[in-house]
Write a structure and sequence with these properties.
alpha+beta; about 450 residues; rod-shaped; about 55% helix; Beta-Lactamase
Amino acid sequence: MPIARKVFLTLILFIVMSVTTFAGITILLSQQEIARVTSTYGKGLAVQLAHSAGEPMNADDRLSLNLLLTDIQNSAHVDGVAIFKQNREILAQQGTEFWNPSLTPLVTAEDKGVFVTPIGFQGETKGYALVHLNPEQISSGTQTTLQFLMIAGVIISCIGALVAYLLAKGLTTPLHVLQNGLDKIAQGQFQTRLPEYGKNEIGQVMIHFNQVCKGLAEREQLLRPQRFPLGHEMEDSSEVQQNSQISFLAIDFAGHSRLHERYNVHEINQLLDSYYQFIGATVEQYGGRTQGFVGNYALIAFDQLHTSEDCTLSTLDALMCGIVILRLTEKFNLARARRGLASIKIRIGIHCGSAFMWHSSLMNQATLMTQSTEIAIDLSKVVAPGKIGISHSVLQAVGEHNLRVSESSMLENTGTTTHVTYYTLLGLEAKLRKESQEIVEALFQHIHPQVESPELI
């Protein structure tokens, strides 16, 4: 059963049960109140009649008794009244003939509206006063009120049904839209965008969905193999280099998703830009090429143009670049923390592997993305924030004597069954450590003014 129907039926059931319960309680209380009023009124009227009829009955003044009964009979609530002797002889009677004293005992029957009271005179019982009330007349006002309540209950039920329908539709329409969007994402349509339903929880889900789609689209664009024309453009190409050994450095911005809970998209982009600036400067320092900043990570390539089987130099550049970026981020975050500004922690993955490289006179140098990029990105996701993860190929290229690393672990590459041995970098050889520290200090002098900018969040 669709969720909209479930919500609608649940609300309708709740409304019907509430109205029915209210009506039942109201009717029960009304009946009890009618019985109480009838009993009080009937007993009081019978006692009053008995008190007034004592002296005329003792004098056998039937005219006075009939006048007395006529006054009482004029009440709309009284069906009939009568006065009997002790031997059940009727002395006076007005209204409906409802009583056969020879067949029925002279006792009060409140359920039938009959009330009997002895008539006394000078301490002696002379007879009985009998009053028969009309319960329908007594309860007519209450019955009218109940009818109004029932009509009001029906109206409330109808309004409740309409509200339930609108509420169910308001809840499920965005869910249907989100379901359709997810179906499109499953089909690879990463350009899908959903309407944002205000700033409530559903609206926030739509906003995050669109942000995820944007990241997926950018990542797909980044990882999509770059294909170049085989016509005159390739004829003008000065060189085509294939199967180059390239070192890839991936930077993952940890906690990027949580920023959306505190800041809007413009503020987050502004914050990320402040990091991108010194990351770009560091990449340029070590001769890397930024492949793109996508969603919550960045990808950078280091290659040696004319060396197809060795990546020692490019891997060392990638490693030193990663260390410098990590140290700059730490100093940058400390400086921002002193001003109470938001900050982001990063983690880095580095891998050396093969990829295709084109060099064309018609376009800038471009790299065809291969499995190596995925490995670098996966490495950046498995290490802790503030750490660098390196593959075994990086450890071999740089040399185990130059690095201190953790024990080896196995990484399963995304989308494949390939397993990669990786390590967490713990430290550098003294010369490399000194070199990285000098570059960190030099670059930080250029990025420090960004921390003092009053426009940053």
